[in-house]
Amino acid sequence: MSEKELGKKWDRCLADSAIKLGTGLGLGIVFSVLFFKRHTWPISFGSGVGLGMAYANCQNDLRSHYLQHRRQSVFI
Amino acid sequence: MLRACLRGANATARNNFGKTRLTNLQHCRHYTAGETSGGGAAKVVAAGLVTVGGGIGGTILYAKWDNKFRAAVENNVPYSDWLLGLALGPPSPKSGLPIKKQEYKDCHEHQDTSVTAAVHPDTESPTATEPLKERPVEEVAAILAQQDQEEQDIATCSLEESLTSSAKATLQAIGAQEAALQAITRHTLKLKEAMEAEVPPQEKSAQWKDLEAALADRTGAVNDAETALSKANEALDSLKSVIDKSKGLKVSAVRPLVLAAEENLHNMVVDLDKVVTKVHSAESEAKIVSQYSELVNEAKQQFQREVSSLTPEIQANWKGLTGKLSSDDLNALIAHAHRRIDQLNRELAEQRVREQIHIDAALEQQKLEDQKALEKAVSTALQHIKEEARLEQERKLSELREVMEAEMRTQLRRQAAAHTDHVRDVLKVQEQELRVDAEQVLSSKMLEQETRYRQLSQEQLDNFTLDMNTAYARLKGMEEAIDSHVVAEEEARKAHQLWLSVEALNYTLKTANADIPTVPLEGAAQAVRDSCHDSDFALALSSALPEESLHRGVYSEASLRARFNSLRSLARRVALIDESHNSLYQYFLSYLQAALLFEEKQEAPPAQLCSEDLDPFKLLSYASYCLEHGDLELAAKLVNQLRGEARRVVEDWLTEARLTLETRQVVSLLSAYANAVGLGTTQAP
Questions:
Q1: What DSSP character marks residue B1?
Q2: What ipTM was reported for this prediction?
């Protein structure tokens, strides 16, 4: 069902972005706590990184059909 | 135009009628004036008669002048030969038959003139036959032979005549000459006797009378002989002329006769000459004797005169004076006699002296005479010898000619034999050729006949075969009809089966519930395939059923409709996403658009889509409308126009829709086919 694909993609995207964001945030916090004397910039940096990665992944995932630079069997 | 014609006709009628009226009047005038009409008729009759008479007369005159014209007229105009014969007499060189009769008559009459006259037309007739080339060769040859025969007959007749006449004359002449000779000899003898014999005076006078009679006889005989001789000469001349004439005729059969006649002539001439010479010799002798007698008579007369001069009373014949003389007379006579004896002695001496001269002279004379006689004899002998030689030559010539002719005949016979051989050979060759030709012709005719026969038999056979073929064909046709009936029934059964299977297939399509596809169409499709072994179309169609439908089944239209409804909102949401616009921001915008844009739920699609209608929202509303109205196909077409992500989203639905559509199409085709087949197999009542 091709119509369900989009939903699946969004699901993945959201999950991935949540993970990324959380991970970024967490790592930021960790790094800020650990290495950067609780500056906020690593948190924002980390969350930004996480968001950015999530955004990029989501975008990539959503436009993956249109890229087709290598044969891929199936996207989960 | 009709009126013009009528006017013209009337005018001409009036004119003619007027003219006839005039002429009628003229005729009436003539009839009323009686004498002129009779005169006119008489004139016409007279003119006619004159013309006819003139024509006939002219024809007769010209026929008289020109025989060819006469012959032509006689050939062409009947009874003209009678008229012309009446007017002119028989035609002269027309045929040899009347001439021949005439000639035979003349021959029998023995007339030279008629023969010569007959010979003329005879010689004319051969010349006349030459210009008349119409006569056939055999006729001409026959006529010529006839004429030759006639000529020969004439010649023989004439020769015989002349021969007989001349022989007669010659014999006569010879007889006369002999008679003359005899008469002469008799006379001479008598004269000699009269001169020398001492006979008494009575007998002397009788002797003298006899002598005179003999002389008269002799003269008569000599005259007769002369006339006979002249006649004989004439006859011989005529014979010669006839011989010459017959020599002039070129008839070979006459030659021996001519030769014989010539020989006879020669013999006659020779005999005649001999007799004539005899007569001449006798005459010369007689002349001598007569001279002697004359001399004696003269001497006697002299003596008589002397005696008479001496004794005048003594009679003439002194021999009769035996008793009448006196002694004086006797003395005178003796004296005279002595004188005479003296004279005579003197004369004798003189004569003896002159004897030689006289003898010489006489010899000369005799020589001359002998010479003349010799010459004459020589000439006659020469002539005779010449004649004999010529006759001999002629005889030899005729013999040679005969020999030559015999040889020629043998040669000709040989030639004829050779010719017959050659002709036989040629005939053989010709026969061969002709046989070959005939055989060829025969064989060709036979061939023709055979070919005709074969042709006819072939035709018969062909006809028979044709009939058989037609019968067989009909039989076959009937069999085929029956078979086709059987086949048609089979077909009908099959069609029914097919129809049933297709109906089953159709039914399976209806087994789709909501969201559950139909049962797999495999079984039904197999059934359909089983029931349509022979129909390629059906087989193709049944094999054209998509695999998915066979194995999985197809979704119904209702389920597709429902699904579409859920798809629609999704498609709306991703309307802006395509290859180039597919970032998240675009996604956000697209979602915003979908939230803010409101279109009609269902919109009827136009007949033709323009570029504006390719907007996804519009398309979706068109498709909804179509779906609501059951037109899955159009909905699918419209949905097919979506591009980008929306298209990706509806891809599956489209596939399903396609599947369903395909299956339905195939099934509908199959059912249509089955229906058609079923309809086709149903037989009209």
A1: -
A2: 0.86
